[in-house]
Amino acid sequence: MDKKGILIVVSGFSGSGKGTLMKELLSRYPDTYALSISATTRAPREGEADGREYFFVTKDEFEKMIAKDELIEYARYVENYYGTPRSYVEQKLNEGKDVILEIEIQGALKVKKSFPDTLLLFVTPPSAGELKSRLVGRGTETMDVIESRMNRACEEAEGMDRYDYLVINDDLNACVEEMHSIIQGEHRRSFRNQAFMKSMKEDLERLKEQQS
Ligand code: ADP
Ligand code: 5GP
Fold first, then answer.
1. Computed over its alpha carbons, how large is the radius of gyration of the chain?
2. How confident is the model at residue 79 (pLDDT cuts 50, 70, 90)?
């Protein structure tokens, strides 16, 4: 099978459990996946470290990264900028890793446009009520911010059908395994295996010639 990694975008409502899912997927399959670390102008949350969850940068630094074409995509989300650094993604894909970008929908659609083979996954909790409980339960945002994220969720819901798969994050364990199966199944798509198909055809021709 062809060796190059797949570029995967994971989007979903804030509070749907993307971060939790990614952490679990990476700890179970560390040799298969690489998670891109975005740059953002938002302030770190309690417990977040620079270079681990995000590269926390100033607006000035972010604008310089845009000017130098160092970002694959970027978007504004609830008053802050978020963007995907290019070099890490390219390096890991070439190493054969499946690279995951955990980004919102505007960025997802830009990535799909630049890289049409990207696999788009949308994570959602089983219900809107469960989304609100998770945002409140996480305890990292004020009620004002939670409200703006719930409003943003209404807008994002309009884009769900632009994604290749919906991933319902009800039971965490089942959801991690489902996501892994979807991605591994994606490796078997014929269009991702051009080199294998070419060599199979050549070998078949060679055997046919030897027989005649
Ligand atoms: P996101 O990264 O999408 O904003 P988080 O990973 O921070 O979401 O999850 C939001 C909250 O929901 C966290 O408190 C997390 O522990 C919780 N959570 C995540 N997945 C599940 C799940 N399957 N069942 C119940 N709670 C969950
Ligand atoms: P949070 O502030 O909760 O960490 O992230 C807010 C939103 O920004 C989430 O939907 C997250 O997926 C998205 N996001 C994180 N990094 C990037 C990025 O590099 N580009 C884009 N377009 N969105 C991002």
1. 20
2. confident
What residues have CB less than 8 Å from 62, skipping those under 6 apart?
A: 39, 40, 41, 74, 81, 83
Question: What are 8's strand-pairing partners?
Answer: 100, 119
- Ligand 1 centroid–CA 170 distance in Å is 10
> What domains are defined for the chain?
7-36+98-211 (3.40.50.300)
Q: Which ligand is nearest to the CA of 152?
A: 2
- Residue written as token pair 């940068």: 57
- What is the rounded distance in angstroms from the CA atom of residue 78 to the CA atom of residue 155? 12
Nearest CA to 180 among 32, 53, 3?
A: 32
Phi, psi angle pair for 6, to nearest 5°: -100, 140
DSSP 115: -
Q: How confident is the model over 161-196, as pLDDT tens digits?
A: 999 999 999 999 999 999 999 999 999 999 999 999
Cα 55 to the chain's mean position, in Å? 17
Cα of 210 to ligand 1 centre, how many Å? 59
Question: Cβ(134) to ligand 1 under 6 A?
Answer: yes
